[in-house]
């Protein structure tokens, strides 16, 4: 279990360190008029809208909220098992939603299981599907003015694993967990 979580986290860190997107921490220039809490609230709003766009809905939990020197990272893990046959569809739903919001695709992973987007106001979005079918959606805010940052207020639509070890995805969906190929 811990090896799987470590592998997912290592993959995320490797991707973050590859320079795929402009890192918020690499620039100390602050976005005027926004502080860390306001940026975190905007990140939560983006995540809330994204999860509302996923049909049929998936169960998710908060993973972490980490403020940096001038940015905040927010991450949510999907507890619904995303089968191999549905992973492309899942990322397709996210891509269509984010593009409809005016977000631009920055990069995708060679394996097709990672996508990076950027909002016009500098928020960096990442969708990652781990080999065990667990999807992670994370956002890094642009560099903003320092302030205190509260934990997210959105309620997970299932158990909250934010203060404990994340289990493997454990919720079955008739659609997202199905091994049947999609009909064209």
Please sum up the structure shown:
With 184 residues, the protein is an alpha+beta fold. Helix content is 26%, strand content 20%.
Question: What would you say this structure looks like, in words?
Answer:
By secondary structure, this protein is an alpha+beta fold. It is 26% helix and 20% strand. It contains three helices and six strands. The chain has helices spanning 2-17, 36-53, 87-100; strands at 60-67, 72-78, 104-108, 114-118, 124-129, 135-140. Strands 1-2-6-5-4-3 form a six-stranded antiparallel beta sheet, covered by helices on one side. A hairpin with a 5-residue loop joins strand 3 (104-108) and strand 4 (114-118). The chain is globular, with a radius of gyration of 16 Å. The model is unreliable at 1-27 (pLDDT under 50).
Keywords:
184 residues; alpha+beta; 20% strand; globular; disordered N terminus
Percent strand equals 15-25%
As an assembly, this protein is single chain
Order of helices and strands: HHEEHEEEE
Percentage of residues assigned to helices: 25-40%
**Counting H and I runs of at least 4 residues, what is the number of helices?**
3
- Any idea what the radius of gyration is? 16 Å
Category from helices, strands and their pairing: alpha+beta
Query: Which ranges are low-confidence, i.e. pLDDT below 50, for 5 or more consecutive residues?
Result: 1-27
**In this structure, how is the largest beta sheet organized?**
6 strands, antiparallel
Large-scale geometry: globular
Spatial arrangement of strands, main beta sheet: 1-2-6-5-4-3
From the N-terminal CA to the C-terminal CA, the straight-line distance is 36 Å
């Amino acid at each position: 279990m811990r090896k799987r979580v470590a592998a997912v986290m290592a993959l995320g860190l490797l991707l973050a360190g590859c320079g795929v997107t402009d890192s918020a921490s690499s620039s100390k220039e602050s976005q005027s008029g926004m502080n860390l809490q306001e940026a975190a609230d905007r990140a939560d709003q983006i995540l809330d809208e994204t999860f509302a766009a996923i049909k049929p809905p998936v169960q998710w939990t908060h993973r972490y909220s980490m403020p940096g020197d001038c940015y905040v990272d927010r991450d949510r893990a999907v507890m619904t098992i995303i089968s191999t046959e549905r992973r492309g569809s899942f990322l397709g739903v996210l891509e269509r939603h984010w593009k409809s919001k005016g977000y631009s695709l920055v990069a995708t992973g060679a394996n097709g299981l990672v996508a990076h987007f950027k909002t016009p106001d500098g928020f960096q979005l990442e969708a990652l599907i781990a080999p065990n079918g667990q999807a992670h959606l994370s956002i890094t805010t642009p560099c903003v003015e320092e302030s205190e940052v509260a934990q997210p207020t959105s309620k997970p639509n299932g158990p909250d694993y934010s203060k404990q070890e994340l289990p493997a995805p454990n919720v079955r969906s008739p659609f997202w967990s199905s091994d049947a190929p999609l009909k064209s």
